[in-house]
Amino acid sequence: METDIPLRDVMVREVVKGDLDLTVLEAAKLMRRYDVDSIVVLDHGDPVGIVTEGDIISELVSKDVKPSEVKLKDIMTTPLITASPGDRLSDIAKKMARERIRKIPIIENGKLVGIVADVDILSVSSEMNSILAELIEMNVDREIVEIESEGESVGQGICEKCGSFSHYLEMKAGFMVCESCKEELEMEGVD
């Protein structure tokens, strides 16, 4: 199930980082260059905070403060809420909702190894929902075909025996099979 996915499978490994004394102007340029909306703040290589576009807007733009005069350490969110690569997606999604955060840095052995954003979780979730919807639709179609067409041709699809696409599927021994697999089953004496 999608909720048991470890964060290492969804995290973005390239994280934009900046030192405590980096100016907000320099950070904003980095964020723009890498097309991201946050920067993880480091103190001697250790992650200690995060600055997002929202922080820049609320702390500088709304107060008409010059970004070249403010350091990341002055506006970063700290303490930094983090997760580990092995943490389950569902647990972290709940944690992010509870803490009202949209990004969570991933730390392993004290080092920053990635970041997960709410959009990363949503993309996995929507992708899984699409796959589930397709599987449900396939299963419903198969059940309808079994009821209505036992032994009759039902059109095109994937053969449940060999996995090949076929323009001609038929129900045989409880499986939707292509003509070749149907003949094999008949030769084996399977009804």
Strand order of the largest sheet: 1-2-3
**Outline, from the CA principal axes?**
elongated
Q: Please compute the radius of gyration using only Cα atoms.
A: 26 Å
CATH architecture of the largest domain, by name, is Roll
- The top-level CATH class of the largest domain is Alpha Beta
* C-alpha termini separation: 35 Å
Number of extended strands:
8
Structural class: alpha+beta
Q: Determine the CATH topology of the largest domain.
A: CBS-domain
Q: Could you state the oligomeric state of the chains shown?
A: single chain
Structural summary, described in words:
By secondary structure, the protein is of the alpha+beta class. The protein folds into 2 domains: 2-123, CBS-domain; 149-191, no CATH class. It has 6 helices and 8 strands; from the N terminus they run βαββαααββαβββα. The protein has helices spanning 24-33, 53-59, 72-75, 89-99, 118-148, 179-187, and strands at residues 17-19, 38-43, 46-52, 103-108, 111-117, 153-158, 165-172, 175-177. It has a 3-stranded mixed β-sheet with strand order 1-2-3. It has a 3-stranded antiparallel β-sheet with strand order 6-7-8. A two-stranded antiparallel sheet has the order 4-5. A hairpin with a 6-residue loop joins strand 6 (153-158) and strand 7 (165-172). It is elongated, with a radius of gyration of 26 Å.
